[in-house]
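Please annotate this fold before class:
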Amino acid sequence: MSESKKTTGKGSQKKSKTQKKKSPKAPLRVVRKSSGPDIEFMDMPSLGDIQAPSGFRVVSFSQAMMEYAGPIMDASESQDFKELNEKLQVAMLCWNHSISGERVGPQFSDKEIINKIGKTLKMSEHGAAEFFEKMIERKSYLFPEELQQRGVPFMVMRKEMSHLIAPFDLQRINFLEKPVPPDQKDKKFINNLNRLDSFIMLRAEYDEYEDLFSRVREGCTEIFDKWLIAKGAEESGEELTWFPEVFLNFVYGYFHEDAFVLKSIPPDYLAVFFSDFVLRKLAIEPHLYAYVPASIKLFYKFLCEKQYLDDPAPVISVIDEIEPHFIEVLRETFG
């Protein structure tokens, strides 16, 4: 369980530069889904190994926007996709307006933004104006300009809440050891996964396996969830079931410097997945990050039972070694 408490006030924080610790390096070549093999070389600092000043944490740009947009996204309980998208657009307008000395995208006046806030959040003009001012102040408070660095793919953000982080204990699951034999859906998934592996190892063009990768990734959650239920993990399944899709995206959605697949992923790349990719790509409740190692370990047991690999122990052993550092990073980031 996650326990939270408010951090104290808006008092000034002692300024210090972000520092980078040593971490395994595994540059990624991001495969874009636009036409043609558009590949971007990225040599990114590991997000989990960047030290922020006391009272702050390091987040990706997308996470920064989602955190900033919190009051707007929470303004109503509607889960309508169109409405959520409109709210995010309002948050971006406020963000861009608050950037000192520059304009990003279309330029809008205060009045235009206030009108947009009123219409989207169903507020009076006076209420919308007050809300707009709060959002401008929120940007300066959460992301002090003097702590930001240019040319880096992250932002330094003030901690609004403090969270207690604990690793997920697999012993809490009454896990049934009897194997669950693969059914037809499982066999189809494993067959597609093996085909995907052959594409990766042959360094095939992305267009040749894009559709296959999408089918593997999208089918993973359903059959993994079904397996978790069959193994007695139904109570925790909702919190564990969808992280393998993120892992598949890391392994197969990027061209890495070294060619590997699920059954042959090098330890350094596993470390990068936890110390950087998870923190950079996921925007979830802080305590849920601690569920990721358990989820991936269970996923490898699932892959063994479904006859994709012979022994999950080597990968699980590496994750066991990485997990304490990952939990420490989470505590430093969210504690």
About this structure: The chain has a mean pLDDT of 80. The first helix runs from residue 61 to 68. The beta strands are 4-6, 19-20, 28-31, 39-42, 50-51, 56-59, 155-158, 161-163, 254-256.
